[in-house]
Amino acid sequence: KKRVAILVSGGGSNMVSLVDSMLKDADHPGQPCLVLSNNADAGGLTKAAARGVSTAVVDHRPFGKDREAFEAELVKPILEARADVVCLAGFMRVLTAGFVRQFEGRMLNIHPSLLPKYKGLHTHARALEAGDDRHGCTVHEVTPLLDDGPILGQAEVPVNPGDTPDDLAARVLVQEHRLYPAVLARYLRGERDVLHLS
Ligand code: GAR
After folding, report:
1. Distance from Cα 169 to the centre of ligand 1, integer Å
2. What is the pLDDT of residues 32-46, one digit of tens each?
3. Which residues are catalytic?
C-alpha cells in the first residue's frame, strides 16, 4: 500500500473522510501513515488519534515569516513516516516552491471552489458576490503556484437564492467528503483523468 500523510490546520473533516475511506476498505491502495498539523489545537489531531493514526505537530509561529525554516521542520515527520503521497486537507499555510518540489507529483490539495475560479480565501463569499449559480470544490495536484496545478476532480453544488457563505460552505463540504476520497483512491491507482461528481 502507498503511505499517505495528511496535513491539517483545523477540524479535519476532510482528513477523517480520507482516513476512514482507507481504513474501511481492505483493498484500498493507500494507508494513512501520519496526520500532521501546524496547530496543536487542531481538532483533526484528536480525530486522527482516535482512529489509531500517528500524529505530529510543527507549530509555525516560532518561525515568524521564515517559511523555509518552518518547512525544514515540517518535512521531518513526513520523511520519518515514509510518506509516498501527501494530502493537504484544510492546511492553511502557504508552502514554498522548495517544499512543494520535494513532493512533486505526489501532493494533492482540496480547495473549496471550482478552480480556476476563486483561488485563495473566502471562496464562498466570492462565488455569492459574483452571482454564480454553480459552485463546488476541486482536488488538484499541488504545484508551486497557489491553488494551481493539474485538476484531478471536481464536484458541483447549486447556489440557492438567499444562501449565506456558511450555507454554501456546508453544502460544498458534503461534496468535499465524497470527492477527496474518490480522487485519492484513483490517484493511488495511477488514474489521472478528471473525476466529475454532481
Ligand atoms: C475545507 O473546506 C477545505 O476545502 C478548505 O478548508 C476546509 C477545511 O475543513 N481548504 C482551504 O480553504 C485551503 N485553502 P476541514 O478541516 O473540516 O477538512
Report:
1. 9
2. 999 999 999 999 999
3. 111
Grid coordinates of 56 = 505530529
Instruction: Choose the residue to mutate in 6, 21, 94, 110 for probing ligand 1, maximizing ligand atoms within 8 Å of C-beta.
Output: 110
What number does the ligand 1 atom closest to the CA of 173 have?
2
* Interface pTM, i.e. ipTM: 0.99
What pLDDT is attached to residue 88? 98
Single pTM value for the model: 0.98
User: Are the CB atoms for 170 and 179 separated by under 8 Å?
Assistant: no
Give the strand pairing for 134-141 and 107-111. antiparallel
**88's grid cell:** 493537504
Cβ-contact 77, 36 below 8 angstroms: yes
pLDDT > 90? residue 139: yes
| Spatial distance between the Cα atoms of 24 and 3, rounded to a whole number of angstroms | 16
